[in-house]
Amino acid sequence: MDWFNLPNLPTPVKVLFSGYLLVIGVGLCMAGLQIMLTHGMADGKIGLSKDDIVYSYYGDRSGSRLEGMLNGAMKDKAPPEVRLDIIKWAREGAPEAEWEPHFKQVFAQHCVMCHSNVPGIPNFTHFDEVKKVAKVNEGASIESLTRVSHIHLFGIAFIFFFMSLIFSFAVNVPRKLKILAIAFPFAFLILDVLSWWLTKLNPGFAWLTIIGGLGYSIASTFMWFTSMYQMWILSRNGKVYGNAWEADL
């Protein structure tokens, strides 16, 4: 199968591979945007930083999740005096005695439009749900880390597997570089997920999350562009290339 490499593939196979790469490329961009809009706003500032990682996984243990959100992503959802009133109540332990006569109406006016209809976020029509986020922010729970970790590992591994499989048919790529490019996304994926657990224990490990994310992003971007270039641009020169694995030794 000397012909089986990216430049020499039949057009239907190129379309199949390219369709997959295009969908995955857009999906990864959307994933990056989602990270910027969630974790990237954890410290109340636009852009992903070490503090965002710390707040997301270790937490801001100087205050509650509720306070952190009111000073961050939810800052524009209520007037300053209302936010300060809620923060003061949360710092006092969110006593239930003040819920019915006052704070139930405050939350109904400013929060429940989303926090009663959007799945996956606390329902602020119930005091018990508010009480949970009014506690000191200790970051992600063990339960949520376990759930997100196994979903992330299984899902992203499938993406990298098929992307790496397509890239393995590339030509004129030094063998060592090809091996590293294929191995790096999996290695950095493991580092990324492991860093969440380490950051939960110690905020000093937050840098590993950024390194892991950058590592597999760079490697997958290299494989994506190399594969698309060889299928649709390099193949136009009319040259017939040899075995994709032996020619690059």
How do the strands and helices of this protein lay out in sequence?
Blueprint: H1 11-37, H2 50-58, H3 65-70, H4 80-91, H5 99-110, H6 127-133, H7 142-167, H8 175-201, H9 206-232
Helix pairs in contact: 1-9, 2-8, 2-9, 7-8, 7-9, 8-9
What characteristic shape results from the CA principal axes? elongated
Based on secondary structure, the structural category is mainly alpha
Task: Give a quick account of the main beta sheet: strands, pairing sense, barrel closure.
Answer: none
Relative strand content: under 5%
Evaluate the radius of gyration.
Answer: 24 Å
Which residues sit in consecutive blocks of at least 5 with pLDDT less than 50? none
Domain module count? 2
Q: Percentage of helical residues? A: 55-70%
